[in-house]
Design a protein that fits this description.
The complex is a heterodimer of chains A (300) and B (267). Chain A is mainly alpha-helical and 300 residues long. Chain A is built from eleven helices and two strands; from the N terminus they run ααααβααααβααα. In chain A, helix 5 packs antiparallel against helix 8 and helix 9 crosses helix 10. Chain A starts with a helix and ends in a 14-residue tail after the last helix. Chain B has a six-stranded mixed sheet, with helices on both faces. A four-stranded antiparallel sheet of chain B has the order 2-1-4-5, with helices on one face. Chain B starts with 5 loop residues before the first strand and ends with a helix. Classes of the chains: A mainly alpha (300), B alpha/beta (267).
Chain lengths: 300, 267
């Protein structure tokens, strides 16, 4: 039973990270029908910024959880700036273009950002300090769930609640939903759609940066290429849950995390990806729009 | 009040789509307190005309001038639709374009969006003044719903309303942006006689009580002749007549182009 619980919580942790990144994909897709392939790179940049800032802070004598918080804040701000700029230079000029053009632009930006970090930093794996301390009160259950997992779970949970409140309750959230449903009509009721799209990218990037910091600190190393795999997994989670749907992204992330965790635990860790993508294929056969996705009829 | 204040002035508006001239140097004026109508057979370019005025298309030639009371004249050509809305000009569509997955109240509240001061950052932080502003929006939106007779449906999803009610909600949403000029594109399309009669009254009420001038496109001749003056007639992109309902009825060009053949089956 303990083993099952361990796998369950491990899958939950992994899945909540996927969900965090998948939210960025799904929000952008919902609003401008673009798969932002450079989203994984924002995640990677977030991790790198956290590494650099954590290093500097450690030199200046900071320690413990304050390093994690400050590094995360720096990573979020940096990633938001990248996300905003990315949209401005790579996607906004292509707003009226056929859907394939911004897609190619996204792939281009992904490759560009990877190589930019490769040249500016290094191609080697860099060790990432373990910023999440081991809490004493976690010791009795440490064989099932460790402190880093707990921090990841709480952070993602709080972040998702804040995001939900933002979208459901605030004025900008309403504007985002309106833009998602009918962009030209949103303009006609006076919404500055370009601002809302920028904001969507900024929020998505912030979520990716949070994910980047948490994972890098958990796994303990970063590299210019980590964004690619995380991006593919999160994208899978978004499609699994129904791309464009926010609860779908969360659910998709969790389902993917559990599948991988249980497959690795009960079968073999070599096969976790096989099971994850096998599940994706299966769900898409049964529900082509994803678990929570709505088959959308094209309105004329 | 000798001379009525001119609100919208369109001069020689032309819109080309490649080789097709959809609107050909049309001029039109809407004055304060008026309910003006734009009529014409299908494909005459009426909706294209609306799209040019509201910033969806950038016209090829001509001027669209807005004269808000007590403010300097603004040229609308090529402005983005949200800017046009901010200037006090709102519209509805021929086919219903509500935010169908939002509640009726939210649909109206979103129209208020452009009239509130809180920016993105402050609306996330939600300080006291933002919360008060939100509360005021909820109340004023509710008042608007009462005016169009939808208050009881406030928490219903927009997509669940009956057709006529959806139309009225669109008008309420447009009014939420606090326009001084309202453009209605076929507001009575698809309505039964009962609903049309209600709409008739609603439009008159908006004009009289809210002091909003109205320019409407409509095929329902009874509605047009009842409430609007002046009437402008378009055919094949050109304006072929303008005047009071009586003048339009008697105009041989109009009868030939439109009334003679179309009214029988259209009514």
């Amino acid at each position: 039973m303990d083993y099952f619980l361990e796998l369950f919580l491990g899958g939950l942790t992994r899945g909540s990270i996927y969900a965090l990144i998948a939210l960025g994909y799904t929000m952008v897709y919902g609003i401008i029908q673009l798969i932002n392939f450079a989203h994984g790179e924002i995640y990677m940049i977030g991790a790198f910024v956290a590494l650099i800032v954590a290093g500097i802070l450690t030199i200046y004598g900071f320690a413990g959880i304050s390093v994690l918080v400050l590094a995360a804040i720096a990573a979020i701000i940096w990633a938001c700036a990248y996300g905003y700029t990315l949209e401005k230079i790579a996607y906004r000029p292509l707003r009226g273009a056929p859907r394939l053009s911004p897609l190619i632009s996204a792939i281009g930006m992904s490759i560009f950002l990877q190589n930019y970090v490769l040249l500016a930093q290094t191609s080697d794996f860099l060790p990432f300090p373990n910023l999440i301390p081991d809490f004493e009160f976690m010791e009795p259950v440490a064989h099932i769930i460790g402190s880093p997992e707990l921090v990841i779970l709480i952070t993602t949970f709080v972040t998702m609640i804040l995001l939900t409140l933002l979208i459901k309750k605030t004025k900008v959230g309403k504007a985002m939903r309106a833009t998602q449903q009918d962009m030209s009509m949103a303009r006609l009721v006076g919404i500055n759609v370009d601002r809302i799209i920028s904001l969507t990218f900024i929020i998505g990037s912030a979520l990716a940066a949070i994910g980047g910091v948490l994972v890098a600190s958990y796994i303990g190393q970063v590299n210019f290429y980590i964004g690619f795999l995380a991006g593919v997994k999160a994208f899978t989670a978004a499609v699994l849950g129904g791309i464009g749907s926010i609860p779908g992204a969360v659910l998709g992330g969790l389902v993917l995390g559990w599948t991988e965790s249980f497959a690795a635990g009960y079968v073999s860790s070599d096969y976790e990806d096989v099971f994850a993508f096998g599940l994706l294929v299966l769900i898409l056969i049964l529900r082509p729009a994803g678990i929570l996705g709505k088959a959308r009829k094209q309105k004329v | 009040m000798a001379e009525k204040h001119k609100l919208l002035e369109v001069k020689g508006l032309t819109m080309d789509f490649g080789g097709l001239r959809a609107v050909d140097s049309v001029s039109l004026e809407v004055h304060e307190g008026e309910i003006a109508a734009l009529i014409g057979p299908n494909g005459a370019g009426k909706t294209t005309f609306f799209n040019c005025v509201t910033g969806i298309y950038n016209p090829t030639k001509g001027d669209i001038l807005l004269h808000p009371k007590g403010l300097p004249t603004r040229r609308l050509n090529g402005l983005k639709p949200n800017k046009v809305t901010e200037m006090g000009l709102a519209r509805t569509f021929q086919n219903i374009r509500l935010f169908s997955d939002m509640t009726v109240l939210e649909n109206v509240m979103i129209g208020r969006h452009c009239r509130t001061s809180a920016g993105i950052f402050r609306s996330i932080i939600r300080d006291k003044s933002v919360r008060r502003e939100e509360q005021e929006i909820v109340e004023s939106s509710y008042q608007l719903l009462k005016k169009v007779g939808l208050a009881e449906f406030a928490n219903e999803f927009a997509k669940n309303l009956p057709y006529g009610a959806q139309r009225r909600l669109e008008i309420a949403r447009a009014m939420a942006t606090e326009p001084f000029l309202l453009l209605l594109d076929e507001p009575a399309a698809g309505m039964n006689p009962q609903e049309t009669a209600e709409l008739d009254q609603l439009i008159c009420r908006i004009s009289e009580e809210e002091r909003i001038a109205i320019l409407l496109i409509e095929h329902d001749m009874k509605l047009v002749m009842n409430i609007s003056n002046p009437i402008y007639v378009m055919e094949y992109g050109k304006k072929i007549a303008e005047g009071s309902p009586q003048e339009i009825k008697d105009n041989p060009k109009v009868i030939e182009a439109y009334l003679g053949e179309e009214t029988e089956e259209d009514a």
